[in-house]
Specification:
Elements (H helix, E strand, L loop, with lengths): L1 E7 L6 E7 L17 H4 L2 H21 L3 H4 L2 H7 L15 E3 L2 E3 L1
Antiparallel strand pairs: 1-2, 3-4
Helix pairs in contact: 2-4
């Protein structure tokens, strides 16, 4: 990124001008998708079908509540609720996932 500044002298109406140049990709970590889970590859077909239905329900709830979908449930929670183990740490699975007054078991 480069920043150039210049004073424009015009008596009482003097002002500074700034020119900022940057590359749109500068500062972004390489491999932004690293660490992301492709649930279609991780889950079995029936588990992914349940996961997809739960995502639609999450979207409807989020729109109704006026919040982002991830504030209702994370993808990881949906995968667990859909019958899959925790993709990041196998072995633990909640009996039910709660959000406000809604519970999905």
């Amino acid at each position: 990124m480069t920043v150039e500044r210049q004073l424009v002298e015009a008596g009482q109406n003097s002002f500074w001008t700034y020119c900022v140049e940057f590359l749109a990709t500068a500062g972004l970590p390489e491999g932004r998708n690293e660490g992301r889970i492709d649930y279609k590859e991780v889950l079995s077909a029936p588990e992914f079908e349940r996961f997809a239905r739960l995502r639609l329900l999450r979207k409807e709830l989020a729109e109704k509540e006026g919040v982002p979908a991830y504030a209702i449930f994370t993808n990881e929670q949906l995968a667990q609720a859909g019958g899959a183990g925790n993709p990041k740490s196998e072995g633990r699975r909640p009996k039910a996932v709660r959000s406000g007054r809604t519970a999905i078991a």
